[in-house]
Amino acid sequence: MITAERKPIDEIRAMIAPYERVLVLGCGSCVAECAAGGEKETGMLASTLRMAAKMEGKEVLIQEKTLDRQCVKDFVILLDDVMDQYDAVLSLGCGAGVQAVAEMFSEIPVLPALNTEFLGETREQGYWVENCLGCGDCMLHVFGGVCPLARCSKQLLNGPCGGSREGKCEINPEVPCAWQAIIDRLDRFGSLDRLEQIYPPKDWSRKQGGGPRKITREDQQR
Amino acid sequence: MDSRIATERKEQAGKQIGAAQGRKRTLALFYCQNTPESGEEQRQALEKRHASRLKLFPIPCSGRLDPLHLLKALEEFAEAAYVIACAEGACRYFEGNLRATKRVDMAAQTIAQIGLEKERVGIVANSRENPKPLAKLAEEILDRTSELRPSPVLERPRRGKGTKEKKHDHSRKKTH
Amino acid sequence: MKEVSRLKRVLDQGGFAVTAECGPPKGADAESILKKAESLRNTVDAVNVTDNQTAIVRMSSLAACSLLKSAGLDPVLQVVVRDRNRIALQSDILGASALGIRNILCLSGDHQSFGNQPQAAGVFDLDSIQFVQVVRTMRDKGTILGGEPLTKAPDLFIGAAANPFGDPFPFRVIRLAKKVAAGAEFIQTQCVYNLDRFEKWMAMARDKGLTKKTCILGGVTPLKSAGMARYMKKKVAGMDVPDEVVKRMEGVPAKKQADEGIKICVETIQRLKEIPGVRGVHIMAIEWEEKVGEIAERAGLLPRPEEDAVGSKE
Prior knowledge:
The structure holds three protein chains of three kinds.
Chain A: E1 2-6, H1 9-16, E2 21-27, H2 30-33, H3 39-55, E3 61-67, H4 73-76, E4 88-91, H5 95-104, E5 110-112, E6 114-124, E7 127-132, H6 178-189, H7 205-209
Parallel strand pairs in A: 2-3, 2-4, 4-5
Antiparallel strand pairs in A: 1-6, 6-7
Chain B: H1 7-21, E1 27-32, H2 40-50, E2 54-59, H3 67-76, E3 80-85, H4 96-112, E4 121-125, H5 134-144, H6 152-155
Parallel strand pairs in B: 1-2, 1-3, 3-4
Helix pairs in contact in B: 3-4
Chain C: H1 6-12, E1 17-22, H2 30-38, E2 46-49, H3 61-70, E3 75-80, H4 86-98, E4 103-107, H5 128-141, E5 157-162, H6 172-182, E6 186-191, H7 195-207, H8 210-213, E7 215-220, H9 226-235, H10 243-250, H11 254-274, E8 278-283, H12 292-298, H13 307-312
Helix pairs in contact in C: 4-5, 9-10, 10-11
């Protein structure tokens, strides 16, 4: 899932200040899972912004709505009927959602209420960790299901670096050393010898080579 | 608008505004149904006794509380929105009261960010050995929140463009 | 005259090598590094120049090495993979060789969050082991990564760093083996305070045949104070400072602690000399370079073999 966190309220208020009719738009997918932009959070933000507006004596229409997903055109298009009621959209989608809405309703400013962060998992309730970089050339089968690019602070393919302490990364004692995890995992499988070979430099062109990436599937299209 | 005024002036201003608008100060109280003497009859009697000063919302456990409930209450009618929970260790569902505490805290942080006093929300845990009845706790909380200046959210009369239409009728909040 | 690596010569001839470290200035002045280096002349076989160590912006290692080279010293160019992609790294290798620099140490580098530019993007296009391999291939096959030929191959003595005290234990020697397999001809270790543990690591390295394929230089750092000993014990990742060492520093009045630190350093070097497979010592007296001479003297490392003497044995 994609994780995000809500921007500070002050920043959001400054963003919507020029507008008089704002749609606060939530998303029921990834950002709901990380409690940043789902229906509840959207309701809370809208209520908070309305209270702030009242306190300032500002007359502004702030209404909320939540889509199942903001990053899929078929859902975004459902807003077509109501969009002329607003002069701005405050989206609680991830960056992909904000842009998809902006793409469909290009005459109206679509503002991001969240800071999109990383691709990751819900390790525990209320705790999300980054685990994928989207490199386009997955090697998780080699490294025992632990990604040395996303989870090692130095992106070492031939780690560890020697700076770890008690299984934690040298840059931050709260960050587990990915290479410790890889070694433990492969040791358990009896495949530690796999790490004796030298893994060659990563092909970053699969990530950056052609600029922003796309996928086209003829068999999926109409 | 958001300047802090001294206590005496606060009271004066409060009285003036209250008198001018004839507006009552309402406390929204979300209480765990496990609280002694908090059945439907007692609730109605309490609301009658305090008239518009008090609006009571029963919930099956304080853990059912969503920060949104508190915000909506403050947005629409309440000077303050409080939660009554069971004592630590006495929650029938084990952790409901602990979760409620975190959520009330979150609501407090949120309203502080727009300049509202954190004391407009709060949670009161009942005593473990001698749990107090709802009426007593309600009175204590009314007392505790009486010093708050009139809510700047509610002060200005609504004109023209309003807010989202109420989907929920807060006067008779259903428990689920 | 063809440039040669003095360090390589000393090791090839079976000598016990001595290297020291020198940090470039946080400014554009050539004077300070030349001054530091002057105190090391005839005291060491080669001088390591650090590369934006701890991710703090300093004069580039390549430029500083070039200055030292012009002053007649034999620099070891330290290169971290944190700040440059493969294009820049290979380019710098060619430049270094063209400037007459003949030694390189390939490192990962401290993470950018440690330094004074924590908002920088860490590059990490290659890791240190891949980098060793790239340099080796450039030198021995005359090609860059991908196989395209160079007009002239660089001439460099290739080294890597090793930490006998960091890493998950079962992995330490495997990693060393990887560095050697990648082409590391000399290894400089993290500074040693725990000699027992170091000896165990050396034993494992010998068992794996690594001491025959590479020259291991044990690192040492003189302690300036008991406070420094405590700090390094607690706060520096990958460091092992035994309690006895801390106690020894603490057991001496403040004014005498620096002397005690030097004493411990000298004793460490003497013990390192006794360990089979240890081919030299790397003295890292950061911001205390003036003491290297004294340490080398007291440890019986001076005089260093003369240039001619080195040449005449061939």
